[in-house]
């Protein structure tokens, strides 16, 4: 499994599902799982696939999520109709080590998961991120990292810029992250261990990252009832893409995984299966 993976966990194989820990470039241990999904169900690697197991969809959850949360599992189960699915828990979440940096060093966690998918033999890899995970997949795709790059990227309910406090949920999130008592609530109430250190340096924002993603296919999905990030966020991201990205503004949709119904997730899976690998040469 390469230098980014350690030995599978006891009882890791269950109905074809592989559970392991990955090691990130900065040494953090990340809980991860691989579900063969459509590669087993259809024997073709999924919808729109022409090689066994060639497509993997890597799911990047939102803040306070983890790979065992019901809303993350539901999203993964729907996406598994279209190919294999890799889920993982970001640092500081669930059984993963380290502390959450709320979108900064999490790009290393995603890179380890994508690299693992490649090591398992998947020739097409799509990243799908929700909320904080949406910002991470955008920053990761902008890196075009050799061996851990992605063939298409989907950002759902992602912020466009850092430090946004324009809604009540985001003001509560800042209290959770920046205040000692908030981090205690995060640790014991939400099973999320948050790093107390401020960003230094501040990482590139999602809107700064988007222009660097081309030619990788990019889909931006956002609900018009999102209580965290209003519609100027997805519109800023789409504008920064200068015509390269597709933008889906979903009527009646709220925020992230909880608000993504099965029909939307199926549309995302279909988009991923049809776009991955269709990349023009870079100039």
From TrEMBL:
State a single Pfam family of this protein: Abhydrolase_1
Q: Which residues form the AB hydrolase-1 domain?
A: 56-158
Q: Does the keyword Ligase apply?
A: no
Q: Any keyword Transcription?
A: no
Q: Tell me, what is one Gene Ontology molecular-function annotation carried by this entry?
A: hydrolase activity
Keyword annotations: Hydrolase
Q: Which domain of life is it from?
A: Bacteria
Name recorded for this polypeptide:
Hydrolase
**Species for this entry:** Streptomyces nodosus
Record lineage:
Bacteria, Bacillati, Actinomycetota, Actinomycetes, Kitasatosporales
């Amino acid at each position: 499994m390469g230098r980014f993976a350690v030995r599978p966990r006891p009882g890791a194989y269950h109905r074809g599902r592989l559970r392991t820990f990955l090691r990130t470039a900065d040494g953090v241990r990340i809980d991860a799982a691989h579900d063969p999904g459509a590669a087993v169900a259809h024997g073709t690697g999924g919808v729109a696939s022409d090689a066994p197991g060639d497509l993997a969809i890597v799911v990047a959850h939102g803040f306070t999520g983890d790979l065992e949360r019901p809303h993350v599992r539901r999203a993964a189960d729907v996406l598994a109709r279209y190919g294999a699915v890799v889920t993982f828990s970001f640092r500081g979440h669930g059984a993963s080590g380290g502390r959450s940096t709320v979108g900064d060093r999490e790009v290393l966690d995603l890179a380890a998961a994508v690299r693992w998918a490649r090591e398992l033999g998947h020739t097409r890899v799509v990243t799908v991120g929700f909320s904080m995970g949406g910002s991470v997949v955008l920053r990761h795709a902008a890196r075009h990292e050799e061996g851990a790059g992605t063939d298409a990227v989907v950002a759902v309910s992602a912020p466009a810029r850092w430090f946004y406090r324009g809604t009540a949920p985001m003001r509560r999130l800042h209290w959770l992250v920046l205040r000692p008592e908030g981090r205690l609530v995060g640790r014991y109430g939400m099973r999320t261990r948050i790093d107390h250190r401020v960003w230094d340096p501040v990482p590139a924002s999602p809107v700064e990252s988007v222009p660097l993603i081309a030619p990788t296919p990019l889909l931006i999905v956002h609900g018009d009832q999102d209580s965290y990030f209003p519609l100027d966020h997805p519109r800023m991201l789409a504008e920064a893409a200068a015509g390269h990205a597709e933008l889906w503004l979903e009527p009646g949709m709220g925020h992230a995984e909880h608000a993504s119904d099965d029909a939307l997730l199926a549309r995302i899976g279909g988009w991923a299966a049809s776009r991955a690998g269709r990349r023009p040469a870079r100039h």
